[in-house]
Structure formats: structure tokens, C-alpha cells
Write a structure and sequence with these properties.
It is built from 20 helices and 15 strands. The strands form 2 sheets. The chain has a 9-stranded mixed beta sheet, sandwiched between helices. A 6-stranded mixed beta sheet has the order 10-11-15-12-13-14, sandwiched between helices. It is α/β, with parallel strands linked by helices. It is globular, with a radius of gyration of 26 Å. It folds into 3 domains: about 160 residues, no CATH class; about 200 residues, UDP-N-acetylmuramoyl-L-alanine:D-glutamate ligase (3-Layer(aba) Sandwich), CATH 3.40.1190; about 120 residues, Alpha-Beta Complex (Protein-Tyrosine Phosphatase, Chain A).
Length: about 525
């Protein structure tokens, strides 16, 4: 009987371990195999401030004490009482059901068993088995197996770090292929970076240049080493004249590394703002990391509406670079796109080129960045006005459509920063409506110490529209509730919030979907 019980407990622990691996491998994959993400997200899911808050909600109350915390208290109690069979059962329960809300299969993205993921998983399983086997030779054989279940996040952290040198060598092969292709085809490389606005500016520039010979832009958000090398190897065809490369960074040195093998002739910097502060800590670090893109470039296009970027031209010109200042507001801009009464006016070199109807969802400053890059590529001022008519919004970035129900939908699900949020709320506020305005959002993330403040300000701006606030998930509930000062609605998922929107809003109403966090965020 004891043998049967031991086997059942072992099977239960094995299943619990598998459940934990499925959860945390998906988090690791969604976070681009950043080993630090394991403990960072474990802290997010374990924090009582995230698991619950004192929000006034019409849907369901928040629970500051979840099953995750209950299981951890029970585990501690069984260790104190030295009841190790019960410890195994409770530990298996934690593995099966916790963290509460972190899906095993995922609702926004399934686990993709790529070669890299398989390698990380196999190494982590091997290390975990070592822990379990060593525990089996102690006086409490279940202890090692329970540790194996509880330690999945740090074990994946360790496994990813151990495999990093091998992954670097493998990735270098694709980079070498991309370098060979760039050298053979020899396009003019335009590199675009910025805290936000990169993808939109890339999209607009490609549209401005369409019809002028082969122009290739890196797809979607392929903006790191793996993405750029893949974009070049798969998309850069013979005869390509211009390659537009979006370049992102999570820290100093990354853009410099990208430009070392994909050097731009023209660099575009769209903005410096509080994005990825969780990793980079300060705006000064963000600014220094973004400035790396200017080092190999002969021409630099700067959005001088941004006060930090407005301080760059003098030093860049002193370094022998051509600087094209662009913007919507600053009178120092060589290329300006101003907005008045839903009309754009294009001003280049102080000359008014004319005006055209605004395209809702296209921000004037990002369009100005694209026009500045086009100017650097040889597009004449007389062509700019006509070319500007070609631009269209980027999917899921400030798109405005009217649903079949008659409800106006502002889709800004792919934007997630304070500046884009302000722009989206301005669009919502300017809509000609007869009914309600509703904002559906999980708030803003990766803002470090500024996250609470920025989400509080976001909620204040929603209230000032005025619009109803619907909060998805738990990550920013406390800050959003504090800033909104009214009753808000909360749902665990965007699907639930969307269902409520469809059942509650009528023609003449509008819903803004602001940011769309994947489900590995609590």
C-alpha cells in the first residue's frame, strides 16, 4: 500500500512539474528568452499588490490573498511540522494550480516548440531531475521533488543562461549570412529607432517610397539581431535599393551591436520616452542607448519636438553629420507636418508646400520623421505633398473603424506607452459622437518606478475625456483606480471586456482599446 501511495504521489508531482514547465516556458518565450524575466514575472504573480487591490468595481472584487499564497503558507506549515508526505501533496497542488490565473496552455498565444525552446526545456528537466534524485537519497525523499516543482522559474533562468553562448554562436551564422547578402546587394540602409513610433515611421516611409524601385522594410517588429538577420536573409532580393531596418533595444550596447553589421547611412530617431524603464532604469540610459544608432550614420533625422532629441543637432553636426530636424510643433524643424482643423500642412525649409486631409490614426510627428528620411534619400519637396497622400495607419495602431453594430472602435492595441496613450485619448475625445466613450485597457507596463504614476495619470486623462474606464487584468488596477476617482469595471481578460462592450454599447458610442497585454501578465 505504501508503494502504491508513493507511486501516486510521484505521478502527481510529475504532472505538477509539467504544468509549471508549460506555464513558465511560455513566459520565457514571450519575453524573448530573457532569463531575468523568470524571477521578474514570478514576483509579479506573487505580489499581493497585483493579486488584489481596493478597487471599487462593478464586476468582481479583487483578492489580495489568492490560492498561490494559500499554497505557499501550507507548504511552509508542512515543513515546520515535518509532514513531508503532506508537503508533497501540497507542493503538487501548487504546481497544478499556481500562480493563480497564469494559464497552462495560454489564451493569447500557445507555446511554440521551437528548437531553442526544446533545448532550454531539456536542460532544465535534466537539472531538475538531478535535484530530485539528490533529494531521494536524503531522509525526506519527497523534499527534492517538491523543490523541483517550486524551482521551475529559477531553473529555466539558469538553463537559459547556460545555453546563451551556444545560442550566440548559432545566431552569428545567420548574421554572417545577412552581412554577405547586404554586401552583395548593397542597399541604402535606413535605420529607425525610438522609444515609440518606430514601426509607424517605418511603415510610412515604405509607403512614401513605393514606386521608386525595390524598397524592403523589416517586417512587423523584427527589430533585434535575430529578427533583422532573418528579414535580410529572407526578404532582401537582388536589386533592392533601400532597406528600412527597425532597431530596438532593451539596454546599452544592443543598437551599437546591430549597426556594427547592418550599418545605416541614414538614422532616424523618433522619440525618447519612459519605455523599458524596468530594464534600463532611467531616461538618461534610454537616451544613450538610442543615440548609438547615429554613430555609423552620415545623415541623422531627429524629431525635435522631443526636448531630449532637440539637444542633439549641435553635437551631431560637430561630428560631421548631416542633421534633418523634423517635427510637428517645433519651428526649428526643417520638415514640419502641422495639424489644424483636421488638415495637415507640410512645410519644408520654411516653404509651405500645401495641405491635405488628415489621415486619422497617423500622427503628424511620425509622418514628419518618415518625410525627413525620404528627403535624405532624395525625394524632392515638390513630391512630398502628393506622396503624403499615400500613407495609411498601421494595423492595431490608432485605427478608427465603425463596427457593424454602429459602435466606433479605436484600435490601439499594439501601442503601450504614455505618449501613444495621450494621442489615442485625443482621437477618442475628438470623435463626433452622440453617446458614450469607453476605454478598455490593462494600463501601461515596463515603466519601472514610473509605472504607478504613469497609470495614475492615464486614468486621470480618461476621466477628463470624459470616458468610462474598463480595466483588464490586475497588473495596474490600483494605480488606475486611484487616478480615475470613480467606479470602474474590471474583467480578467480582454475577451470578457469585449463581450461586455458588444452587449452594452449602441450606435453613437465609441470604445478605445488601449494596449493589449498578453496573458502572461497578471
Amino acid at each position: 500500500m505504501k508503494v502504491v501511495g508513493a507511486v501516486l504521489v510521484a505521478v502527481l508531482l510529475a504532472v505538477a512539474y509539467g504544468a509549471q514547465m508549460s506555464r513558465w516556458l511560455r513566459v520565457l518565450q514571450r519575453e524573448h528568452y530573457d532569463p531575468r524575466s523568470m524571477l521578474r514575472f514570478l514576483a509579479r504573480w506573487s505580489s499581493p499588490l497585483v493579486a488584489g487591490a481596493k478597487a471599487r468595481t462593478r464586476v468582481r472584487p479583487h483578492r489580495p490573498f489568492t490560492w498561490s499564497h494559500a499554497f505557499l503558507v501550507a507548504i511552509a506549515a508542512t515543513i515546520v511540522l515535518r509532514s513531508y508526505v503532506l508537503l508533497a501533496v501540497v507542493g503538487a497542488g501548487y504546481g497544478l494550480f499556481c500562480p493563480q490565473g497564469l494559464s497552462i496552455r495560454g489564451t493569447t498565444s500557445p507555446l511554440e516548440w521551437t528548437r531553442r525552446l526544446r533545448a532550454v526545456a531539456l536542460l532544465a528537466v535534466g537539472l531538475s531531475l538531478v535535484v530530485a534524485v539528490l533529494g531521494a537519497f536524503t531522509s525526506e525523499p519527497y523534499l527534492g521533488a517538491v523543490v523541483m516543482v517550486l524551482a521551475v522559474p529559477p531553473m529555466l533562468d539558469l538553463s537559459t543562461r547556460l545555453l546563451h553562448p551556444l545560442e550566440e554562436r548559432r545566431a552569428q551564422k545567420f548574421v554572417d549570412q545577412a552581412v554577405t547578402r547586404l554586401e552583395r546587394i548593397h542597399p541604402t540602409v535606413v535605420a529607425i529607432t525610438g522609444s515609440y513610433g518606430k514601426t509607424s515611421t517605418k511603415h510610412y516611409l515604405a509607403e512614401l517610397l513605393s514606386g521608386d524601385g525595390a524598397v524592403v522594410a523589416s517586417p512587423r517588429s523584427y527589430n533585434n539581431r535575430a529578427g533583422l538577420s532573418r528579414a535580410i536573409n529572407e526578404n532582401l532580393a537582388e536589386g533592392t535599393r533601400v532597406f528600412i531596418a527597425e532597431m530596438g533595444t532593451y539596454g546599452p550596447g544592443e543598437i551599437r551591436a546591430l549597426t556594427s553589421w547592418c550599418p545605416p547611412e541614414i538614422a532616424v530617431i523618433t522619440a525618447i520616452g519612459p519605455v523599458h524603464l524596468e530594464r534600463m532604469k532611467t531616461l538618461e540610459v534610454v537616451e544613450a542607448a538610442k543615440r548609438e544608432i547615429t554613430e555609423p550614420a552620415k545623415t541623422v533625422v531627429l524629431n525635435v519636438d522631443d526636448l531630449r532629441l532637440a539637444a542633439w543637432p549641435e553635437s551631431l553636426r560637430a561630428a560631421g553629420k548631416r542633421v534633418i530636424a523634423v517635427g510637428s510643433i517645433s519651428t526649428e524643424a526643417e520638415v514640419r507636418v502641422t495639424l489644424d482643423a483636421k488638415r495637415w500642412t507640410l512645410i519644408v525649409g520654411g516653404v509651405n508646400l500645401g495641405s491635405l486631409d488628415e489621415v486619422v490614426g497617423v500622427l503628424p510627428t511620425n509622418l514628419a520623421c518618415a518625410l525627413g528620411a525620404a528627403l535624405a534619400l532624395g525625394l524632392g519637396p515638390t513630391e512630398m505633398l502628393e506622396r503624403a497622400r499615400r500613407v495609411s495607419p498601421v494595423p492595431n495602431r490608432l485605427n478608427v473603424v465603425t463596427a457593424e453594430s454602429g459602435v466606433v472602435v479605436v484600435d490601439d492595441t499594439f501601442n503601450a506607452n504614455p505618449a501613444s496613450a495621450k494621442a489615442a485619448l485625443a482621437v477618442l475625445s475628438a470623435l463626433d459622437l452622440t453617446g458614450r466613450r469607453v476605454v478598455v485597457t490593462p494600463g501601461l507596463v515596463e515603466l519601472g518606478e514610473e509605472q504607478h504614476t504613469e497609470n495614475l495619470l492615464l486614468a486621470q486623462r480618461v476621466a477628463a475625456v470624459p470616458a468610462e474606464l474598463v480595466v483588464v487584468a490586475r497588473t495596474n488596477v490600483a494605480a488606475l483606480e486611484a487616478g480615475y476617482h470613480k467606479s470602474l469595471r474590471r474583467f480578467d481578460s480582454r475577451d470578457e471586456a469585449t463581450a461586455w462592450i458588444r452587449s452594452s454599447l449602441v450606435p453613437g458610442d465609441a470604445a478605445l482599446y488601449l494596449n493589449d497585454l498578453p496573458d502572461h501578465y497578471p
